[in-house]
Amino acid sequence: MCQNESSLPIPAALLLRVFDRRYRVYELATGAKLVDRAGHSPNFSPTSRFLVADIGDADGRDLEVIDLVSQQVIHVAAGPFVAGPAATRF
Fold it and tell me: N or C: fewer beta carbons within 10 Å in the chain?
């Protein structure tokens, strides 16, 4: 579970369920499923607006970034990590 105290328009409490090669994100207040995707090792950004998950092998180098507000993949990256500019509220 992730608690969000940000002023961004995202759910206050999220639940992340991780399965074998798949994960889901739910809004706790309503039970609404926000994301249901193939992938592993998902992680919330510090504000919980974004979620990054590995969509490839277990090497951690094929990552996708999902905006939980729009519920869309906004970026696919190759690397061992993803970062934004220091001024960005990632």
Answer: N
Q: Which domain holds residue 33?
A: 2-78
Q: How many CB atoms lie within 10 A of CB 81?
A: 9
Query: What is this structure's pTM?
Result: 0.75
Residue 85 resides in a domain: no
CB count within 10 Å of CB 32 equals 10
Burial-class residue 90 by CB neighbours within 10 Å (0-12, 13-18, 19+): middle
pLDDT, one tens digit per residue, over 34-73 is 999 999 999 998 888 999 999 988 776 899 999 999 999 9
Task: Let me know the angle formed at the C-alpha of 83 by 13 and 50, rounded to the nearest 5 degrees.
Answer: 25
Instruction: Give how far Cα 74 sits from Cα of 59, 64, 70, Å.
Output: 21, 8, 9
- The CATH number covering residue 64 comes to 2.40.10
Total tally of structural domains belonging to the chain: 1
